[in-house]
Amino acid sequence: MFKKILLLIISLVIALPLAGCEKKEADFSETKAICELATLKCYYHNTSELKQDSSGIGKWFGNIGYKKAWIEYDGIVKLGIDASKVKIEPNGNKVKVYVPNATILGVDVDVASISEAVSETGWFTKITTEERAETQKKAQEDMKAKAESNTALLSQATQRAKDTIKDYILNVGSLIGVEYEIEWMVDNNA
Question: Which residues form the signal peptide (predicted)?
């Protein structure tokens, strides 16, 4: 609801200067802000593991070199469209809109949510700070890979962007007295 109200306010700000003009033309320059409103945020709870088996003679003497750690964490994956690739081409009451497919815009692991590592090590073996950092990096990459493979989620993000852009175009049109017909185009270069 908040986004629809914000969308209406942005549309009003754009259309008000046009209210006193003889020839009314739409200004779709706020498309980037509109696309940012359509960003979809997904919350993930995941785990990451570090594992290293002992090797050589270490196997026989107290499992020297063996280490295993397990962490849990939460994170947010942002999905949306690249607003710079959206093209809106008005022609009378028809508008061609080119929208790229949604992609992953960002992955943020909530560092505060990372659990204390549950770890197990062999004799004279420690889990280093670098290994902990590598495990966190792996967690972030894993979260991104899971989101990228979720085609239903990416499709939902694309549709959400289209719906938001459509509402924006129709609101601008109603403010200047034009009923727009929208044609969605595929841009193979996007």
Answer: 1-19
Length of the chain: 190
- Per-residue model confidence as pLDDT tens digits over 58-98: 454 555 666 676 678 888 899 999 888 899 999 989 999 99
Residue 180 has pLDDT above 80, yes or no: yes
What gap in Å lies between CA 190 and CA 11, rounded to an integer? 26
**158 falls within a domain:** yes
Helix (H, G, I), strand (E, B) or coil at 31: helix
Nearest to 188 by CA among 101, 69, 109, 106: 101
CA angle at 104 for the pair 78 and 137, rounded to the nearest 5°: 85
- pLDDT over 50 at 107, yes or no: yes
Distance from the Cα of residue 30 to its chain's centroid: 20
* Sign of torsion over alpha carbons 127, 133, 139, 141: negative
Determine, yes or no, domain membership for 21: no
Q: Which residue has the higher pLDDT, 42 or 25?
A: 42
Q: Residue 139 carries which side chain, given as an amino acid letter?
A: A
Domain for residue 46, yes or no?
Answer: yes
Total domain count, the chain: 1
- CA dist 36 and 167 (Å) reads 14
Q: Domain span at residue 63?
A: 2-16+26-185
The Cα 99–Cα 186 span in angstroms is: 7
Within-domain flag for 69: yes
